[in-house]
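**User:** You know discrete backbone vocabularies at least as well as I do. Would you mind producing a protein record, from residues through to fold? Write it directly below this note and I will take it from there.

**Assistant:**
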Amino acid sequence: MLKDSRESVENEPHQRRPKTSTDEQHVKQIKDLVLQNRRLTIRELADTRRVEVCETMISDYQGKMKRMITGDETWIYAYDPETTDQSSEYRAKGEARPKRSCQSRSKIKVLLTVFFDYHGVVHYEFLPPGQIVNKEYYLSVMRHLREVIRFKRPDLWADNS
């Protein structure tokens, strides 16, 4: 049995139009931008609108955004070779260049999982050596994060966020 007591997986006929962003309000905003500067490209128009949407979201949802926690993962290498600029050094005229070995990126790396909110880093965790990244690993990370939130951000925990 499907949602809403439907028994068929086929689309039912409907009278409504598909959702679109080309309503009168958006058309007028784009038209006004073009009339202000006729040299605008499509990319510049999109960027302008995107900035306006972000500003609106920040002002309208700032309270909610302060309560969000997001995360990311990145590989951390034990050694990253220097760039040409980083390894450059002053030499006097006629002085021989120092010998350098060919450097390659380290094969030793570890996965860093970090969670942060409006105030900064809430929790970070390194993947233990030999650990496989799977459902159980992520569940343990989430459990650790939950405990950290209880102590570091009790306001989020108390508000049932």
Summary: The beta strands are 70-77, 109-117, 120-126. The chain has two domains: 22-62, 63-80+104-160. Residues 11 and 134 are 37 Å apart (CA to CA). The chain has a mean pLDDT of 79.
